[in-house]
Amino acid sequence: MSYRWLVRSIWIAASAALDMLPGASLAATDAALLPRNLSPWGMFASADVVVKAVMIGLAFASLVTWTVWLAKTVELRRKTALAKQRIGLFERDTLLAEVERASRDSNDAVAQIVHSASREAELSGGIFDDGFKERIALRLERVEAAMSRQIARGTGVLATIGATAPFVGLFGTVWGIMNAFIGISGAHTTNLAVVAPGIAEALLATALGLVAAIPAVVIYNHLTRSIAAYRALLGDASVMVMLLVSREGDRSLFRLARAAE
Fold first, then answer.
1. Cα–Cα distance, 26 to 19 (Å, whole number)
2. C-beta neighbour count of 110 within 10 angstroms
3. Rounded distance between C-alpha atoms, residue 214 and residue 210, angstroms
4. Which pLDDT does position 53 carry in this prediction?
5. Is residue 44 a contact partner of residue 154, using CB atoms and an 8 Å limit?
6. Which residues contact 170 (CB under 8 A, 6 or more apart)?
7. Which residue range forms the structural domain that includes residue 246?
8. Greater confidence, 45 or 252?
9. pLDDT value at 11 more than 60
10. What is the mean pLDDT of the chain?
């Protein structure tokens, strides 16, 4: 009986001595300071208001990136298919007036090119000289430039997001780490269990910045290549219109020569 009492007394004394140590009290404080939820949502909920604003902004930028990708992809596919269909009409040995009638009720890029060339033919009174060809070329260049600006609308946002999102995320990380060090100073401890949650919350901002920036850069490069291919189609359409104009000019000269005979 006395032996058990002695062991129990020693255990109680040792426990009391350990509780009086500074490290034990700091460990209890560290355990109290630890957040209960270290999931991404939990870290967002416990982050500073500035870091939260950065995260929300980066999430919105990522949403804009995917929205632009979806809208421009659908638009490019539709306009590219229509341009190829219109260019197929030029492959036949037809007149400019016939092509213009076939696309009279349309407002796509190739139809705009045809309408512009037909309008210049009307204004020139059917005179197919070198000046007429130069005026046609100038009109076609203007239409190509306008259609190229229209199809590229919205892609500049992707370039901006891709260039700035990592730095915005880095700003949120720096701000969060500063708050973490301020918390360390207030807790009077450098225990990793206290430091890690605040740093993890800060690094989450950098991760969101990369999540927003990397797809934006990839999508921007993909859309740039697709837009360049679409511009090449418009260039082909302009060349085909010039060929039609040249053929009509040669036919007009041939008819004049036969009439003179």
1. 10
2. 28
3. 6
4. 87
5. no
6. 205, 206, 209
7. 40-255
8. 45
9. no
10. 75
Torsion of CA 231, 232, 235, 237, to 10 degrees: -100
Tokens of 158: 């992707």
Q: Is the pLDDT higher at 22 or at 210?
A: 210
- What is the C-alpha separation between 126 and 116, in angstroms, rounded? 15
Q: Is residue 87 part of a domain?
A: yes
- Residue 29 falls inside a structural domain: no
- Residue 235 is encoded by which pair of tokens? 């260039």
Residue 61 and residue 215 in contact, taking contact as beta carbons nearer than 8 Å: no
Q: Give burial (CB, 10 Å; 0-12/13-18/19+) of 29.
A: middle
Is residue 28 one of the residues assigned to a domain?
A: no
Amino acid at 81: A
Evaluate if residue 24 carries a pLDDT over 50.
no
> Are 47 and 55 a contacting pair, CB within 8 Å?
yes
Number of structural domains found in the chain: 1
2, 130, 181, 218 from 65: Cα distances, Å = 77, 47, 34, 10
Q: Please check whether residue 235 is in contact with residue 85, taking contact to mean a CB–CB distance below 8 angstroms.
A: no
3-state helix, strand, coil in the chain (%, to 5): 85, 0, 15
For the chain, the residue count is: 261
Judged on CB neighbours under 10 Å (0-12, 13-18, 19+), 143 is buried
Question: What's the DSSP call for residue 175?
Answer: H
Residue 58 lies in a domain: yes
Tens-place pLDDT, residues 130-157: 677 788 888 888 888 888 888 888 899 9
- pLDDT 10s digits, 39-96: 666 666 666 788 888 888 999 999 999 999 999 999 999 988 888 888 877 777 567 7
